[in-house]
Amino acid sequence: MSKLYVFGIGGTGARVLKSLSFLLAAGVRCNSSSVIPMLIDPDAANGDVNKTVDILQRYKNVREKLSFDGETSNEFFKTPIEPLSKNCRINIQDSKKKFKEFIDYQDLDKKNKALISLLFSKKNLESDLEVGFKGNPNMGSVVLNQFNTSEDFENFASSFSQGDRIFIISSIFGGTGAAGFPLLLKNIRSASPNLNNHSLLQTAPVGAVSVLPYFGVKKDDESEIEKSTFISKTKAALRYYEYGVNDSVNSMYYLGDKLVKDYENNEGSVSQQNDAHFIELASALAILDFANDTDVSTNKVKEFGVENETPSITFNDLGDETKMDLVKPLSKYYFFHLYLKNQLRSNLGADFAKTLKIKEPFLNEDFYRKLSKFNDYYWNWLQQMSNNQRGFAPYTMSTSQDIFDGIKGFKAHKGFLEKTKDYERITAFLNKEAKKMNTSDSIENRFLEVFYETTDKLMADKYKL
Q: CB–CB of 318/306 below 8 Å?
């Protein structure tokens, strides 16, 4: 299988990559040998980007302790996520300057300064690039036009192989994404002969998702970001994409939502941490659709729709194909997380823990601590989506009832362990499955595999899935 390079541009790109990591952790199918995440954002302190970097690194740390051979049934964390650099970024040079310093405005003659004043406002010129482009793609197109000369971009080109694919995530209504996508695409399709594998880049299968407005920002007279400009910016960009982008992309995905929630108006830095949204999950599904597509030789334009338009989406509101792609792996991981969070420590005396040699020291080792923190991120992701507008709320997110009633729209069937209660049923399945484990495998492998097999049996026994 080939590698899949995923470029996440700006805050939206980072949040989509976050959603992708949780889908891959749950075992949603990805027909790629590995996913290579690459984040592009001049805002080094961007809260969304830095959270995504931490999630991707924790995924990688967990995955490195596992092995997947022909005898392994576990699909949790099956697809490797392999960043080319520790921070998963393509670094933007000179991003700590003001925009006027970046373009050497002070050294221009009178005529060129007059020309610049026609293209950029005084606010643009005084803008600090350290927090991004504040919804101004005209600035972004100037600054980002030099990332193809960066060492990170050169490393990307050097690692690229025949058959590898590229996917680009961007929003169309902001500054970084709207500017970065066309420039990145141009630099790939007209890759410099000075780059290694430039001919492979020029002909590589490229997929892209362009995210249309799906949230708003609150009014703030001190901010340069204004919700009322989102639609006009989107229309202008779509017009350009029609003639300057779509023909260069093998699979182009467009996603947006008319039902929007106004977020806090944060121009950037650590305060930019938007709640997870269903559109970001749908965008991550676009990446997997592209990765699993056996024919990417022609130009396609795709959209995503739900079966039922509702403020709070459940699995049954999705189309049949999407529903079946998600319900089983996400639910298995849902039960996996709940048991680890609420029951594992109190069940170290159970047969499965003794068989797997799961003792207190294991829970304090680096592997389990990284896994636990990753799972906390996963739970927070589900909670944020369930509370957002438009919400994605397939689970009750409550442990005060039988957890098998937690999947909305799916009735739990009576099984052979019906006399036992929720977590007791899981423990009974764990005891049974642990006896089948290969004792020569590492403790990490056996730990993940017994939980994967247990949750798989539970889904079949309780929901006939």
A: yes
CA distance 411 to 399: 17
Buried residues in 126-146 as b, exposed as e (16+ CB within 10 A) = ebbbebbbbbbbebbbbbbee
Contact 166, 38 (CB under 8 A): no
Neighbours of 299 (CB within 10 A): 12
**In this structure, are strands 312-313 and 391-392 parallel, antiparallel, or unpaired?**
parallel
Q: What is the pLDDT of residues 105-153, one digit of tens each?
A: 677 888 877 877 777 767 667 666 554 455 455 555 555 666 777 788 8
Nearest to 195 by CA among 151, 255, 226: 151
Q: Are 451 and 25 in contact (CB under 8 A)?
A: no
Report residue 413 CA to chain centroid gap.
Answer: 33
pTM score > 0.85 for this model?
Answer: yes
Nearest residue to 393 (alpha-carbon basis) of 322, 463, 284, 318: 318
What is the domain class of 3-95+132-304 according to CATH?
Answer: alpha beta
* Token pair 């931490």 in the structure block, residue: 54
d(Cα 127, Cα 129) in Å, to the nearest integer? Answer: 6
Token reading at 81:
């996520």
Query: In Å, how far from its chain's centre is CA 137?
Result: 23
Helix (H/G/I), strand (E/B), else coil: 170: strand
**Using one digit for the tens of pLDDT, what is the confidence trace for 7-18?**
998 889 999 999
Q: Assign residue 215 a region: left if phi > 0, alpha if psi is -120 to 50, beta otherwise?
A: beta
Closest CA to 235 of 265, 264, 210: 210
**Residue found under tokens 């020291």:** 361
The residue ranges of every structural domain in the chain are: 3-95+132-304, 98-129, 321-463
* Distance of alpha carbon 217 from alpha carbon 220, whole angstroms: 9
Q: CA distances (Å), 350 to each of 368, 408, 428, in order? A: 18, 30, 9
Q: Residue 423 to residues 340, 394, 426, 458, 462: CA-CA distances in angstroms?
A: 11, 20, 5, 11, 13
